[in-house]
Amino acid sequence: MTSRKRKTADLTGIRQRGARFQVRIFGGIDPATGRKLILTGSAATEAEALALRDGFRKQVADHTAVRTNVTLRVLLAEWLAGHQVEPSTRAGYALLIDNFIVPALGEPTLPALAKLGPRPYERLFAELGACRRRCAGKPFIEHRTPRPHECDDRCATHACRPLAASTIRQCHAVLSSAYAAAVRWGWIAFQPDGGRAEATSSGARSGPTDAAAGGVHLGRGMGRGP
Ligand SMILES: [Zn+2]
Ligand SMILES: [Zn+2]
User: Fold this and answer.
1) Whose CA is closest to 30, among 211, 199, 202, 207?
2) Residue 158 CA to ligand 2 centre (angstroms)
3) What number of other Cβ atoms are within 10 A of residue 103's Cβ?
4) 213 Cα to the center of ligand 1, angstroms
5) Which ligand is nearest to the CA of 139?
6) In the prediction, which pLDDT does 164 show?
7) 133 CA to middle of ligand 2, Å?
8) What is the number of alpha carbons within 13 Å of residue 143 lying toward its C-beta?
9) How far is the CA of 149 from the centre of ligand 2 (A)?
10) Domain-by-domain residue ranges, the chain?
11) Rounded to two decimals, what is the model's pTM?
């Protein structure tokens, strides 16, 4: 029985490495980064490897079957609330979320975003790289404060200033981390950066300090700035 089962078993995506079985499945495209995803794991026995592989396949099949209808805004708020970081880092993340991510992508639900693939993020990052206010070339007055005020010489016609590449990367890291959390919480079925532990951990390592430094700068940058 066992031997017949083994003979007919589909071992696609599984290979033996020493005493263990490695599982490696192409998982589509990471919605946050637009990169290819590889789901990887290992198991002690062939049967466990088959179960793991089939579980990965199911996750891939359910890719767009997101389990809740929350918006990206809600996900980012929940992620930030549960993220263990220094207050200054948190403030930096909040600035990135409130100023750059939520105005562009806050309202769509996670299922709606999942269906769109990487395009919304690529577009947002391209727009921010041209102008942090994403003005699309439309002239407007950049006021010294969002609160009611008398305009003075600090209120002037908007001049485009690109968002720094490092800050755009921080937005990227925030999105990736929030999506990873959404998977842990069972909000979405698919691990957005599954199998990309290297990219994830290096992003996380460089993230906090950059975001903290960037946050201070960004806080001033949102007005007319230095
Ligand atoms: Zn004004
Ligand atoms: Zn502009």
Assistant:
1) 199
2) 6
3) 14
4) 28
5) 2
6) 96
7) 6
8) 7
9) 22
10) 2-61, 72-221
11) 0.57
